[in-house]
Every structure is written in C-alpha cells, then in structure tokens.
Amino acid sequence: MNALLALSRVIDAVNRRVGRAVTWLILLAVLVSSTNATVRKLFNVSSNAWLELQWYLFGAVFLLASGYTLLKNEHVRVDVLASRFSRRTQLWIEVIGVLFFLMPACVLIMWLSWPFFMDAFVNHEQSSNAGGLIRWPAKLLIPIGFALLVGAGVSHLIKSIGCLLGRCPDPREVHTGKSAEELLAEEIAREAQEREAASHERH
C-alpha cells in the first residue's frame, strides 16, 4: 500500500504542476481574445489563425486541467442521495464510480482519440478555414487530457481505498480549502460591508 500511496503522490504532483501551468493559458486566451476584438473593431482586420488559437487555448484549459480539477475535488457532484450515507459508504461509491464509470469512459476516449490525432499528424491536417492553423496539436490535447484524468482517477482510487483501510486521510478532507464559489461569496460580502461602513462614515 505504501508504494501505491507514493504513486498517488507522484500523480498528484504532476497534475498539480500541469493545473497551475494551465491557469496561465486563461490569461493568454483573454489577451488573444481582447486583441482580436480590438483589432477587428479599430482596423476591420480579422485572422482565422488568431480566432482558432482562442479555441485551442480554451480546449487546452478544459482538457489539461481536468485531472487537477478532480484532484481538488472541484468536479460537479450531485450528492442528493450520497450525502445521506456515511462517509465510509460514500468512499465505496467513489471507488465503484472510478472503477466502473470514470476509468472505462476515459480509457475509451483515449483509445478512440489516438488514431484521430495520428491521422491529423501524418497527413498534416490543416484547418478548412483560410489562414487557419494545423489541427494535430488540438487533437493531441484529447488523449493527453484524458490521460491526466485517468491518472487523477487512479490516484483518487488509491487514496479512497487507503482511507477505507485506515492507511491515509480522507481524500476529500485533504483539500478542505474553500471552493472558488465560497471565496467569491466572501469577497462580495466583504466589499458590501466596506461600502456600508464607508456610507455610515459619510453620514
């Protein structure tokens, strides 16, 4: 079990590094998008290559951060029933979910997307739009992204089983940091309080 937990830590470290690096692609996508819009409005000039670059960046963020999102327990959950069960039962549900739903789906997509990428790579597939980009880098993101998600699934499976055996902490409690939504709500509340205090001072 110790070897498996060590493997889990390595997988988590990889997904953590990839996830943090990918966040910079969001900034790049915003810059590319705003520059495209500005140039189009001011100079009436547009480029399919730059428009497609926006799509590539969005795809990269969505696919490459999927494993990091699972690591941080930020995937959408519908726990209407599971929330009523004990944590041990929930862990068993997660083990079954990873083994019989997450892993088969991800492996199938990886298997089907690899020939899809190879065909584009071998044939130097180009965008059908005038001046567009080559297609294989975007298609390569699919197997890579799902490989990272498979890795995150394996890591989560190891930690869930380890928790059931009493060999490691609950994987959900490891990432007890507040979610993005909770942080945003706190920021909004704090700003509202500051405005209210400033209003009282003026009066």
Automatic annotation (TrEMBL):
Domain Tripartite ATP-independent periplasmic transporters DctQ component as annotated: residue spans: 30-160
Annotated InterPro entries: DctQ (IPR055348), TRAP_DctQ (IPR007387)
Regions crossing the membrane: 53-71, 91-114, 134-158
Cell membrane recorded as keyword: yes
Keyword Transmembrane attributed: yes
Location(s), subcellular: Cell inner membrane
Superkingdom of origin: Bacteria
Topological type in the membrane: Multi-pass membrane protein
Keywords recorded for this protein, A-Z: Cell inner membrane, Cell membrane, Membrane, Transmembrane, Transmembrane helix, Transport
A Pfam cross-reference name: DctQ
Annotated family: Belongs to the TRAP transporter small permease family.
Purpose: Part of the tripartite ATP-independent periplasmic (TRAP) transport system.
Complex and partners: The complex comprises the extracytoplasmic solute receptor protein and the two transmembrane proteins.
Protein name in UniProt: TRAP transporter small permease protein
Record lineage: Bacteria, Pseudomonadati, Pseudomonadota, Betaproteobacteria, Burkholderiales
